[in-house]
Amino acid sequence: MSGFRSSDLTNRDILSYVALGDSFTEGMSDPYPDSDSVPNGRYRGWADRVAEHLADHVGEVRYANLAVRGRLIGQIRSEQVPRAVEMSPDLVTLCAGGNDIIRPGSDPDRVVRDFEAMVSELRATGARVVVFTGFDTNWQPVMRHLRGKIATYNMHMRHVADQYGCDVVDVWSMRILSDARAWNWDRLHLSSEGHRRLALRVCEVLGVPVDGDWNEPWPPAEPRDWRTARQEDLHWAREFLMPWIHRRLTGRSSGDGVRPKRPTLEPCRRSDRAE
Q1: What is the DSSP-derived secondary structure letter of residue 43?
Q2: How far does Cα 57 stand from its chain's mean position?
Q3: Which of 9, 23, 76, 164 has its CA 20 to 30 A from that of 231?
Q4: Which of 145, 203, 32, 169 is nearest to 94 (CA)?
Q5: Given this model, what pLDDT does residue 230 score?
Q6: How far does the chain reach from its first CA to its final CA, in angstroms?
Q7: Across-strand partners of 169?
């Protein structure tokens, strides 16, 4: 299948961009400065940041973000993909399957079937489609056992991306994100700095010029004693892990009742940026 050349994104008067996915793409843990004044808060995230970078080079960027926290891949396929197809965007970013893969008993072979079906539908519109590998969880002791399953899913996704001519953001290889400072306290969502770095990486894949280096080394970390580390582990287990397990047991989701933050294509201008 044919796709855009890298320069095609910036040599345009109007560009439409739709972001699909779950909390990763919704931008969880990266609030805008004015989030306290918006009902339920308003998250920025790497996708908003990518749209802002694109607006530095394109006359008008029309941007929609349909991602909702907690969504499984089947929900993304049924709820978000048809709406994206209707919008006929020039660019689509798709990250899906993470919430399925981390669940006990999930099968990467089965999850990737939904993933391929979505990619097929999106590429059939002529859109340039960008997909993302899963994170390497080796830095996270509680989730380290998932590495094999995530790696298997990543290989399946890469095959799909090659088959349909998609760009791939290889998040697995971004060792800079193995630092705890790239993550929110819940250890599952990127911090604001993590989102900023990922946006720079996405722009690199897209061929969009940006200021800044996503792979810039972190400054030396402040030392932590054993007692502080254990207290943080206990706080994380009480405030995040136990509620997460409870939601799984009761069939509830963090995204219940949550609507997409940008359900339609709306202008995104350089003046929207707030560093």
Answers
A1: B
A2: 22
A3: 23
A4: 169
A5: 66
A6: 37
A7: 132
- Tokens 């193995």 sit at which residue? 178
Cβ atoms of 30 and 190 within 8 Å: the answer is: yes
- Cα–Cα dist 23/183, whole Å: 13
CB neighbourhood size of 109 (10 A): 10
Q: How far is CA 264 from CA 84, 88, 149, 244, 267, in A?
A: 9, 12, 34, 30, 10
DSSP state string for 115-133: HHHHHHHHHTTT-EEEEEP
Record the tokens describing residue 31, joined without a space.
């609030």
pLDDT digits (tens, 9 = 90+) for 41-68: 679 999 999 999 999 999 999 999 999 9
Query: What are the boundaries of each domain within the chain?
Result: 6-217+259-272
Burial tier of 221 (Cβ tally within 10 Å: 0-12, 13-18, 19+)? exposed
Question: Tens of pLDDT along 179-209?
Answer: 989 998 777 889 999 999 999 999 999 999 9
Indicate the pLDDT class of residue 246, thresholds 50, 70 and 90.
low
**Residue with the two structure tokens 């953001």:** 169
Q: Report the distance separating Cα 129 and Cα 90, nearest Å.
A: 9
Residue keyed to tokens 């799909």: 160
Between CA 207 and CA 167 the distance in angstroms is 11
Backbone angles phi, psi at 145, to 5 degrees: -65, -15
Beta strand segments in 8-73, E: 14-20, 60-65
Q: Which residues pair with 64 in a beta bridge?
A: 18
Side chain identity at residue 104, one-letter code: P
30: tokens are 């990266």
Which of 3.40.50.1860, 3.30.750.24, 3.40.50.1110, 3.40.50.620 is the CATH number of 6-217+259-272? 3.40.50.1110
